[in-house]
Amino acid sequence: MTALVLLSSLCLSLAFSPSAESVAFQLIFRGKALGEVTATKITDGKQKIFTNNTFISTRIIQKIEVQYYTRVVYQEGILQEADVTTTLNGNPYSHTVTKRAGSVYEFFKDEKLKSTLEYPIYYSSIMLLFDEPVGVDKAYSEEGGSFFSLEKDAPFTYQKTNSKGRKTLYQYKNQDLQRVDIDAGIVEFDLIRKP
């Protein structure tokens, strides 16, 4: 009888324990690896927590190291909060926060309220790393505090256009992101999924 109780307890704890999914990408510029993107999605019941850590290291005139850390929380499919911290050569560069406050969202940049949004957010940038955006035509930028458009460009390929008109191409295989071609303004680079 004790064994049956222990087995039942184990089965219940496994059934309700959080599940985690991780992905990693190499950041490529002109054929050279400059950094890495690692991201994790933890699903715990009706809550999903996404994290993304990006590290870039290069030398133009002097050594430049950029690190982005993103943490995004969804509850029952609706964004609750997003936090993006950027450092440049180990020093704070920018910090943005999106918080749900009742029926609105408040967007803060470097601790100053920059804008409010009055409708629920169901899809944001970090989700593109994990799931092909089938049927999604706009998504929220956690870093920029605004929406961008998504258009299906070809089979399994989606084009993101941000508020500045810059385009990024996302390519999927079996619903998993394989490659991203990014137009960052001055430079263009690629993310390639690591095996």
Structure description:
This protein has a 14-stranded antiparallel beta sheet with strand order 8-7-6-5-4-3-2-1-14-13-12-11-10-9, with no helix packed on it. It has one domain. It is mostly beta strands. It is 7% helix and 63% strand. It contains one helix and 14 strands; from the N terminus they run αββββββββββββββ.
Question: Keywords, please?
Answer:
195 residues; mainly beta; 14-stranded antiparallel beta sheet; disordered N terminus
In short:
With 195 residues, the protein is mainly beta.
**Morphology:** globular
What's the oligomerization state?
Answer: single chain
Return the average pLDDT rounded to an integer: 90
Strand content: over 45%
User: How large, in whole angstroms, is the Cα Rg?
Assistant: 19 Å
What is the total number of structural domains? 1
- Please give the number of β-strands: 14
Distance between the termini: 46 Å
Number of helical elements: 1
- Please bin the fraction of helical residues: under 10%
Sheet/helix structural class: mainly beta
Largest sheet entry: 14 strands, antiparallel
Low-pLDDT windows of residues: 1-15
Strand order of the largest sheet: 8-7-6-5-4-3-2-1-14-13-12-11-10-9
Q: Write the H/E string, N to C.
A: HEEEEEEEEEEEEEE
